Amino acid sequence: MKNTSKVISFVMGLILIMVLVGCGNASNGESGSGEFQIDEDITMYVPFSVGGALDVRARVIATFLEEELGVNITVENPTGAGGVVGIAEFLNQGGPYDLMFSDVNTTLGLTPQVTDTPWSPDDLQPVISLDREQFGLFTNPEETNISSFEDLVEYGESNQIQFGSGGPGNITHLLQDALYTSLGLEAETIPHNGAQEGLTNALGGHNDVTLAGLKLAEQFVEDGRLTPILTFSENEYTDYEGVDPVPPVSSIANEGDFVYESLMAFSMKSSTEPEAVEAMYNAISNVYENPDAMAELENVNVEEITEMNAEEISNELEEKTAAMEAMLELTE
Questions:
Q1: Residues 135, 172: Cα–Cα separation, whole Å
Q2: H-helix or E-strand spanning residue 297
Q3: Among 73, 139, 239, 242, which is most buried by a count of CB atoms within 10 Å?
C-alpha cells in the first residue's frame, strides 16, 4: 500500500508539472511556442499607381507573405501628392499589422521637405527593405546630337536644357535641377506622367535629356534607341549588354552629393508593438529565402535583394534626407 501511494503521488506530481508548463507556454503566445503570432488579415498600402514598379513588387511579396503568415493580404493603391495621400490613409485607416511599401528615401526623406504633410516620418517605423533602383540620364543622339554628359554640358553653356522629370517636388526633378544649377547651366523641366513617358519623349526629341530607372530603360539602350550618359550611383553601371559602362555622377568634380538610389522598403505604424515588427521582419525575410518568390521577383526586375533592418534603413534615410535638403537649398 505504501508503494502504491508513492506511485500515485509521483504520477499526480508529473501531471501537475505538465499542467503548469502547458499554462506557462500558452501564456507566451497563441501557438504555445513563445513566438508572437500575427493572426489578422493585412492590407499592404502602395501609395502609387497599379502596375508601377512598387506595385508589382508589392503584389509578389503579398502572395508569398500570405503563405508565410497564414492570413489574407490585400494590396491597395491610394495615390496622390507623391505618396502623401497613401501614407495618410495608411496611418488613419490601417490596422496594427498593416504595411506601407514605398521608396522610403523619397516618401519619407524628400516629400516632407517639399510638401505640407498631415503626418511626420516619425509616424512610421521601417521594418525591412527589399531592393534598390538606380537612376540614369538618357538622351537620343539622333535628335539632340548629345552622346555624353560632356556634350550635355557643352550644349547647356549656350542653350537652355529641356529635361524630362516628374515635376517639382519629384526626385527626378530635384536631382537634375540641383545638378544643372551646380554647373551653372540654365534648365527647364518638361513634366511627364511616369518615367516611361519621359523615355518616350526622349525618343521623339521632345526633351534633351530625361531621368529614369536604369533597368526601365534597358531595352531602349540595348537596341540603340537611347544613350545613357550618366548614372546617379557611386560606381559606373556595367549591366547593359553591348554598351559601354555608364559613368557615375561621383566622377564629376565635387558632385558626389548627388549620389542617389531609391530604397524600396516596408514600414509599419510607429505605435506597432516591437514583437509584431519583429515577427513581420522574420516573415518577409523568409519570403526572400523562398526560391519561388525570388523567381517571381526576377520577373519584375528585382535582381538582387537588399535586405536591411530598421536601424540600417533609418541610418540611410537620415543621410539621404540631409543630402536632399542640401540639394533643395542649392535650387532656391
A1: 9
A2: helix 291-299
A3: 139
Contacts of 75 (CB under 8 A, 6+ apart): 43, 44, 46, 55, 58, 59, 62
Q: What does the alpha-carbon distance between residue 62 and residue 66 come to, in Å, rounded to a whole number? A: 6
Cell numbers describing residue 214? 536604369
Mind listing the pLDDT tens digit for each residue in 87-123?
999 999 999 999 999 999 999 999 999 999 999 999 9
What string of DSSP letters covers 122-161?
Answer: GGEEEEEEEEEEEEEEEE-HHHH---SHHHHHHHHTTS-E
Which residues face 126 on adjacent strands? 267
* Strand 124-139 with 187-191, pairing: unpaired
Residue that is written with C-alpha cell 528585382 in the block: 302
Show the beta-strand stretches assigned E in the chain: 42-45, 73-76, 99-103, 124-139, 161-165, 187-191, 209-213, 227-231, 261-269
Q: What is the pLDDT of residues 1-60, one digit of tens each?
A: 444 454 445 444 444 444 444 444 433 334 344 589 999 999 999 999 898 889 999 999
299 residue type, one letter:
N
Q: How far apart are CA 59 and CA 50, in angstroms?
A: 10
Q: Exposure pattern of 53-81 as b/e (b: 16+ CB <10 Å)?
A: bbbbbbbbbbebbbebbebebebbbbbee
Name the CATH superfamily, with its identifier, for domain 134-258: Periplasmic binding protein-like II (3.40.190.10)
Place of cell 550618359: 229
Domain with CATH 3.40.190.10 in the chain: 134-258
Over residues 142-190, the pLDDT tens digits come to 999 999 999 999 999 999 999 999 999 899 999 999 999 999 999 999 9
